[in-house]
Amino acid sequence: MFIILGSFLNRFVPLYITYVIIISLIRAGDILFDSYVTVIGAGLAGVEASYQLAKRGFSVKLYEMKKLHKNPAQQSDAFAELVCSNSLRSDALENAVGLLKTELRMLDSLVIRIADANRIPAGTSLTVDRICFSAQLTDIIRHHPLIEVIDAEMDTIPDGEVIIATGPLTSEPLFAAIKKLTGEDTLYFFDAAAPIILADSIDMTIVYQKSRYDKGEASYLNCPMTIDEYNNWYDELINAQCVIPKDYELKVFEGCMPFEEMAKRGKETLLYGPMKPVGLEMPNGNRPYAVVQLRRDDISGSLYNIVGFQTHLTFPEQQRIIKMIPGLANAKIVRYGVMHKNTFINAPKIINACYQMKAEPRIFIAGQLSGVEGYVESVGSGMVAALNMVKRLQNEPKLIFPRETALGAHAYYLANAVPSFFQPMNINHGLFPELIGKHHKRDRKILYAKRSIETIKNMTEAHLFD
Q1: What would the DSSP string read from start to end of 426-447?
Q2: Which residue of 41, 179, 248, 299 pairs with 129 in a disulfide if CB–CB is 3.0 to 4.6 A?
Q3: CB proximity list for 428: less than 8 A, separation 6 or greater
């Protein structure tokens, strides 16, 4: 009765009225329920999963331990904290992650909706004010009548229906419980966050504003380097002191490679990566030899993130190397780059394309712990896990997203990768099945997008997401 009523109200009655009706009925004793879904972790995946379950009339107990103690990457008590960057990457349909965000918008993703509401200028990227973004999501989740937030650490896997979304820094006790349940050895790599500096410490007589190829708004600040400046800076960088993790093998995910590690691969490596000067001509029309880009980190424009400069240099060395960059001689660093351990499961051995454990169907694993990489991908995993938990609770068939969609392509990769070579991966067009029929190569990416959007529309019309 409760599920049917919740679904009916959600479809035909405004959300705030639905809350009032449900709370009134519960208090009056007209609705009795003794089952709920436990969601562990209030990161991007856990928040999205909790909301999608509650939206469909299911009670949720959401466990989050941040108020008790934080992991090395966390700074606030807010949910869905963005710790590495405030960018959710490209919003263009031709980009795989842009398509993924479009699919999530079509499915009423709470996280993407709030991200859109807190957007700050960043060209074609969806970049948000991280504080406002997390604060708004926290407020919605904590005040949802069907979500009970429990500020406590969950160190075991509870009975009943569970979605584990504890992220890449899952606590040791809980990960030990997961490892015992799965029989798998822990997999891990090290991730790195970029420094953030104060805007008023940037020398705007040297730095210029421009987006690459003038696409979108000119929302990036660019620090140009001559060949001599770059060579001198490079020599200092590759000899700078790093914080070396102890007792662990260093496995660095390629998408978050520390810039000093990237530099050690060759003198020109950075010039084809985060310091690529192409499309970033200076106001005088000349192209610099190298460019360090700064991206706005908040709505007011008081903070800037050094793009691609995730690092594990020691704090004094970060200060020294950053201040050698033209325009940043007086840079005031408000958050230093940090190196931290990330954990993830061997997904193809453990979960299916629904993010459901093969050996324990009552348990779903979402977020970066599942083996997805990236903020938006984590949101997508929380969405798919929640929708399939709903199907399980309603005794309906699994909801397998077709590989023609970004959600389905990513889930398929996790479930079907070669276990002995498995590594976390961002969504990319290489995960999609080939297009059928003749087409120009230049049209391929937009055709992927059109095919995906049409697939999601058809699934919606078939009421598969109800």
Answers
A1: ---GGGSPPPPS---GGGHHHH
A2: 299
A3: 96
What's at 463, amino acid-wise? H
Q: Are residues 403 and 430 in the same domain?
A: yes
Q: What is the pLDDT of residues 421-462, one digit of tens each?
A: 888 889 999 899 989 888 888 899 999 999 999 999 999 999
Pair 410, 123: CB distance under 8 Å:
no
Residue 385 has what pLDDT? Answer: 98
Q: Is there a single domain that holds both residue 272 and residue 224?
A: yes
Number of domain units in the chain:
2
Q: SS3 for 307?
A: coil
| Helix H or strand E segment including 292 | strand 290-296
Residues in the chain: 466
Q: How far apart are CA 44 and CA 97, in angstroms?
A: 16
d(CA 102, CA 80): 20
Task: Determine the structural domain holding residue 303 and report its residue range.
Answer: 196-337
Contact in structure between 17 and 38 (CB atoms under 8 Å): no
Q: What is the CATH number of the domain that holds 249?
A: 2.40.30.260
Q: How far is CA 147 from the centre of its chain?
A: 22
> Is 52 within 8 Å of 44 (Cβ atoms)?
no
Give the list of residues 6+ apart from residue 241 with CB closer than 8 angstroms, or none. Answer: 313, 314, 316, 317
3-state secondary structure 339-383: EEEEEECCHHHHECCCCEECCCCCEEECHHHHCECCHHHHHHHHH
Q: What tokens appear for 436 in the block?
A: 């059928």
Q: Which two tokens stand for residue 95?
A: 């980009």
Task: Tell me how far apart the alpha carbons of residues 321 and 231 are, in angstroms, rounded to a whole number.
Answer: 13
Same domain, 170 and 57: yes
C-alpha distances out from residue 390 to 358, 460, 466, Å? 17, 16, 9
Predicted confidence (pLDDT) per residue in 77-120, tens digit: 999 999 878 899 999 999 999 999 999 999 999 999 999 999 99
**Residue 28 within a domain:** no
Q: Which two tokens stand for residue 239?
A: 């000899």
Structural domain includes residue 141: yes
Domain termination site, one of 337, 359, 381: 337
Residue 193 token pair: 């966050």
